[in-house]
Amino acid sequence: QVQLVESGGGLVQAGGSLRLSCAASRSTFSIYATAWYRQTPGAQREKVAHITTGGNTNYTDSVKGRFTISRDNANNTVYLQMNSLKPEDTAVYYCNGRPFGTSWPGPYWGQGTQVTVSS
After folding, report:
1. Cβ of 9: how many Cβ atoms within 10 Å?
2. 2, 107 in Cβ contact below 8 A?
3. What CA–CA distance (Å, rounded) separates 70 from 60?
């Protein structure tokens, strides 16, 4: 069973930066791609970005040019570098992993990390 553990959330002023980490424990051979989702109270989870094992990336329009997703295969960790943060980026951010040939969201979720951007 794959376990994903997020870290790096916190409180930051608008215009600031944070880097989130998603560390995968145990075997990760079943994970083809990893994504970051975010959720605000009363709303559905929104996929923010994803990266495949081959390094292909995709971003939702609202974060393009501000967020960067990357991965460290040696340490089974995926990062989300968030720059120029805005109050509307405030949410709980979740790491999600899916096997090859399946659709988003995948079956593997982390516990979430809170990101709060003050104006």
Report:
1. 19
2. no
3. 15
Q: How far apart are CA 88 and CA 71, in angstroms?
A: 25
The letter for the amino acid at 90 is T
Q: What is the per-residue pLDDT for 74? A: 84
Q: How far is CA 45 from each of CA 30, 42, 64, 94, 106, rounded to the nearest angstrom?
A: 23, 10, 18, 9, 13
Whether the pLDDT of residue 29 is over 70: the answer is no
Nearest to 63 by CA among 31, 87, 94, 85: 85
Mean pLDDT taken over the chain? 94
pLDDT band of 1, cuts 50, 70, 90:
confident
- At 107 the three-state DSSP class reads coil
Q: Cα torsion at 54, 102, 82, 40 (round to 10°)?
A: 180
Q: Which residues contact 37 (CB under 8 A, 6 or more apart)?
A: 45, 46, 47, 48, 93, 94, 95, 96, 105
Kindly report, residue by residue over 42-95, the tens digit of the pLDDT. 999 999 999 998 899 999 999 999 999 999 988 889 999 999 999 999 999 999
